[in-house]
Model the fold of this input.
Amino acid sequence: MRNPMTKPKDIKKEWFVIDASTQPLGRMASQIAHVLRGKHKPTFVPHLDCGDNVVVINADKLKVTGRKLEQKVYYRHSNFIGGIKSVRAQDLLSEHPDRIVVSAVRGMLPKNKLGRKVLANLKVYAGEEHPHQAQQPQPIPDRTVIK
Done:
C-alpha cells in the first residue's frame, strides 16, 4: 500500500466567512485557526499551507466574556529601550477591532514561517461589508467546528 503525499499543486483553497458577533473570541479564534491550518481536510499535511481563507466580519461587535474588556492588556514593543506600549482591550476594540481577532488567532498558530504564511489567509473587517464577494465565501460548516 502506498500513502500518497499531498503536493502544493493538489491543494484547493476555499473561502469561508464567520461573524464575530455570534460566539466568544476564544472559541471563534480556535475555529478560525483550525480552518486556516487546514486540519479539517483529509489532505492535511503539517509542512504545507493547505488551509482555507477566512473572512471575519463584525469585528467591532466582538463578544468577550467576563471583565476582559476592562482587564485584558495588549503589549507591543518598539525594540528600543523603554519602548513598551500597552493598551486595554476596550480601547483597542474601539480603535482597531481587527487587531484583537488577529492577535487571538496568531497565538493559536505555529510560531514559524508557516504560521506567518497561514495568518496571511485571514481577513478581518470591522463591519458587515468586505471586498471578497467575488470569491463567494461560505459560512464555516459544522464539520469544522471543534467540539
Summary: The CA atoms of residues 34 and 47 lie 15 Å apart. The two ends are 33 Å apart (CA to CA). DSSP finds five helices and six strands in the chain.
